[in-house]
Design goal:
The protein has helices at about 1-25, 110-115, 120-125, and strands at about 35, 35-40, 45-50, 55-60, 65-70, 75, 80-85, 90, 95-100, 170, 175-180, 185-190, 205-210, 210-220, 225-230, 245-250, 255-260, 265, 270-275, 280-285, 290, 295-300, 305-310. The protein is mostly beta strands and about 325 residues long. The chain is elongated.
């Protein structure tokens, strides 16, 4: 009889444990996780920008079959033959990167035009048949081309000629390519609606294709809402793209242990995160050192900790599946 009681209570205890495990598995089934990591909380305002290069178009001396002697994107010397039309040489007027793609904006989008021109008229003219490429550059109401928030690629703006556009024939006097002077600095118009406190001559930091670059404000376009800036050097990643997004760094980044802002949770008057420790979810109070819309830098947490990214009440003490440890 005694042995039967022992077996009964053992089975009952196992059943209770199993039921609790099922309950916790059910309650935590929709939780998502991430690992805290070392990183930066940045404060970049993402904005569309128009990049301007020093470009010189080269023209065909006559009509005929077009062939290239300098590969697209390769630097050519002044006086070097970059292409031929029916055996007649097309000579580089200056040193620089040879580009077979011509979009018709080479003599319109210039540093002087950005610095002195009417920007509304300039970008309206640049739009032309591909007006969508410049939508979003000026704020809504500043011009007819400013009705969208996202910049489009300028891969097909204007009349393209050259090998990159699939052409192997050049009309007499037609554009056969261009030389980009990559020894001259790049310029850009940044469509920043809020330029308050920024003055001509100020130095600002801009993230271009993952690289933080310093540039000088050459013009504050208050009416259009934007900044004309010059960089101290040419930027290789803008050779084939005129319009792209950049990040204006308005505040220095903060380095530390970073988690998603979605992981932050207020428990009473305390702010913290739910961390997985030894297979159990525990609330850990943290101090938020810095944050943006996506990430928060916190103290009292080591890199590598697994945290819940969709926290809610009632998670304290909940056991989680061992598979959570596979979270990267």
């Amino acid at each position: 009889m005694k042995n039967l009681l022992i077996i009964f209570f053992a089975v009952a205890a196992a059943a209770v444990v199993y039921v609790f495990q099922l309950r916790e598995a059910w309650l935590t089934r929709d939780l998502t996780y991430e690992r805290a990591r070392e990183g930066y909380v940045t404060h970049d305002e993402v904005l569309p920008a128009v990049f301007v290069r020093s470009e010189t178009v080269v023209y065909a001396p006559g009509a005929g079959a077009l062939s290239f002697t300098v590969p697209d994107g390769q630097r050519a010397r002044k006086g070097e033959t970059v292409a031929r039309v029916d055996g007649r040489d097309i000579i580089a007027p200056g040193a620089g990167l040879f580009c077979a793609r011509v979009d018709g904006l080479e003599e319109i989008l210039t540093p002087a035009a950005l610095l002195e021109g009417d920007l509304e008229e300039l970008f309206a003219e640049c739009g032309g048949a591909e007006e969508a490429a410049f939508k979003g550059i000026l704020p809504a109401g500043a011009g007819e081309t400013a009705t969208e928030n996202e910049p489009a690629s300028l891969s097909a703006a204007g009349d393209e000629t050259g090998a990159a556009a699939g052409r192997n024939y050049a009309p007499a006097g037609g554009a056969a390519g261009k030389i980009i002077n990559n020894l001259r600095p790049a310029w850009a118009y940044i469509a920043a609606a809020n330029t308050q406190g920024v003055l001509k001559g100020d130095s600002i930091s801009v993230n271009v294709d993952g690289a933080l670059r310093s540039c000088t404000v050459e013009r504050v376009a208050v009416r259009e809402g934007g900044l004309v800036v010059s960089f101290p050097q040419y930027i290789n990643t803008v050779t084939e793209t005129r319009v792209k997004e950049v990040g204006w760094q308005k505040q220095a980044p903060t380095r530390g242990v970073v988690v998603s802002t979605a992981a932050l949770f207020a428990l009473g008057e305390e702010v913290g995160i739910y961390a997985v420790e030894s297979g159990v979810i525990n609330f850990r109070r943290v101090k938020v050192l810095d944050r943006n819309d996506a990430w928060a830098s916190v103290d009292n947490l080591r890199p590598g900790y697994i945290v819940v990214t969709n926290p809610r009440d009632g998670l304290q003490g909940m056991a989680v599946s061992a598979t959570v440890n596979a979270v990267k």
